[in-house]
Amino acid sequence: MISTTELPSTRPYLIRALYDWCSENGFTPYVAVKVDASVQVPREYVQGGEIVLNVSMDATSSLKLGNDFIEFKARFGGKPREIMVPIHRVMAIYARENGQGMAFPVSDEPVESPVLSAVGTSADSGESDAEDTPPPPSTPGSSRPALKRIK
Description:
Elements: H1 11-24, E1 29-34, E2 50-54, E3 61-65, E4 69-76, E5 79-86, E6 90-95, E7 101-103
Antiparallel strand pairs: 1-2, 1-6, 3-4, 4-5, 6-7
């Protein structure tokens, strides 16, 4: 029997399920990420140690929602970039249009993982511009997304 400490995290499975729910219902899936050295994103778009990424098929190329990382290519300011976000750094996934989604706890304690540098440019791949991503809906006095429960 597997003990609860040996079970894999449910987070990547829930992220994939909510991504599918958003996509199938015509919503735009966004992920809010707590940025640290393990997160590979354009640092100039990080605000308050966080970044919100549009992960829709229209905004990304080569999207992989894995058990350990979310990986894709996207354009920021017209420049193609490779994005890699460790699953444990995802704070939330939600629909841009109505805020429905799920938030996750993110610890500021460092996790043993290879340190990744800031994103450089990659080969041009024809993705849409991700810089047009509006900020998530938030509650007054908070920088966190105001999420609604999915029914």
